[in-house]
Amino acid sequence: DPAGGPCPSSRVDARDQATRQNVEEHLTTTRTMPRLAMLGAALVLFAAACNSGTTPSTAPASAAAGGIEWTPDAALLTAAKAEGSLNTIALPRDWCNYGQLLDNFKAKTGLTLNEITPNAGSAEEITAIKNNPNGGPAAPDTIDVGYSFGPSAKAEGLLQAYKVATWDTIPADQKDPDGFWYGDYYGVLAFEINKDIIKGESPKDWKDLLKPEFKNSVALAGDPLNSNQAIQSVEASALANGGSLDNAQPGLDFFKELNDLGNFVPTIAKQGTLVNGETPIVITWSYLALADRDSLKGTNNIEVVIPATGKFGGIYVQGISKTAPHPNAAKLWEEYLYSDAGQLIWTNAYCYTTRYDDLVARNIISGELKAKLPDVSGTVFPSLDQLTASKTLIAGQWAAVTGLGPLKTQPPAP
Question: By three-state DSSP, how is residue 74 classified?
Fold first, then answer.
């Protein structure tokens, strides 16, 4: 997200530039249904082959709150145990319930987990594969990266293909036809606001962030030089300021204005900086903001605002490193993530998952859990080509246009 396992294949955490159909109808489409099939261009899907792992659960709706169990495939589990460990990277434990996923996986498999640099950005995940081709503790087995990072990683030969058991329930336009990557979840960019600090009216749209009452208040949750989340935050602001999915320049201009006015805080925002008031307004994915709101309830008053315009949806993808030191453990991890049990854990953290429609159709997601998810109607999803072009522009011109260098990172609390 392995070689030598029950099904010798490879997998990548990237979006492949496979042949597309009907590109024009997808480029600027908005959707009212929370579904990853909303993404840009539809990729042509070849026949799936070589699956291993569990089959989709048929548990009743009463288990939708988290009671569905995952049973690892016996042959794959044996092969993974012979490797002994799993190296993950860039998986913060408060991101989309990854803490619960990691702990459950460890308990179910008995594998040792090596959680490499949990707060790394997508570009750093790719670099980690390049810098550790011979394995070792710094070599990731799997990656979870922004959509635009996938195809380039595949093109560079950094990923291997693998198709999980639930492959057929993943929509065709959310996966590489050869199994080199597939989408995992998405959210929309939102404003996370500490109302203990921002006591007046909250910003409701991107242009509101320019108001004088938000001086020294607005921050990104990553660095636009290497973070998918931050890059797409700039893209989203472009949509609300005269830009488009094909023109992200107004987003750079917006952040220059935000910085010139003194409203931008050049610190990568974390929960700690949100709480202490250093970054009282954070631009972040909706699922992260909502999870913070829940975790801080009773100690801090957090409001989550999805902006009125510039509703930008971003999907992340999974993949397995071509040089994964524990390839069978990597396959087993992907089987868990794409099982009903794994998908429900993501969903409970406000993440719309790649198998969402399948789970709803089988009444695995219903009732209270379905109602818990934020309204993402009107969200736009860029195509791969649009994401790639915007990433090149934003990462390449961030410093020149905004006058900002790499953003500061606050050290963890002692």
Answer: helix
Q: How many residues does the chain have?
A: 414
| Alpha-carbon torsion, ordered 39, 43, 48, 51, to 10 deg | -40
What span, in angstroms and rounded, lies between the C-alpha atoms of 112 and 104?
12
**How many Cβ atoms sit within 10 Å of the Cβ of residue 242?**
12
- Which ranges of 84-214 would DSSP assign to H, the alpha helix? 98-109, 122-131, 149-155
Label residue 12 exposed, middle or buried (CB < 10 Å: 0-12, 13-18, 19+). Answer: buried
Q: Hey, which residues does 30 pair with through a beta bridge?
A: 380
Closest by CA position to 114, among listed 147, 133, 90: 90
Query: 3-class DSSP state for residue 308?
Result: coil
Rounded alpha-carbon distances, angstroms, from residue 270 to 97, 220, 275: 16, 9, 9
Question: Which stretches within 177-227 are classed as H helix?
Answer: none
* Residue 201 CB-density burial (10 A; 0-12 exposed, 13-18 middle, 19+ buried): exposed
Question: Helix, strand, or coil here: 37?
Answer: helix
**Residues paired with residue 264 on neighbouring β-strands, in sequence order:** 218
Q: What is the pTM of this model?
A: 0.77
What are the tens digits of pLDDT across the range 370-401?
999 988 888 898 988 998 899 999 999 999 99
Q: What is the pLDDT of residues 196-207, one digit of tens each?
A: 999 999 999 999
Q: Do residues 71 and 43 lie in contact, with contact meaning Cβ atoms separated by under 8 Å? A: no
**DSSP H/E element including 239:** helix 228-239
Sign of the CA dihedral with 36 first, then 37, 39, and 43 last: positive
What is the Cα–Cα distance from 152 to 159, expressed in whole angstroms? 10
Q: Rg for the chain (alpha carbons), in Å?
A: 20
Could you tell me which of 190, 272, 292, 173 has the C-alpha nearest to residue 233?
190
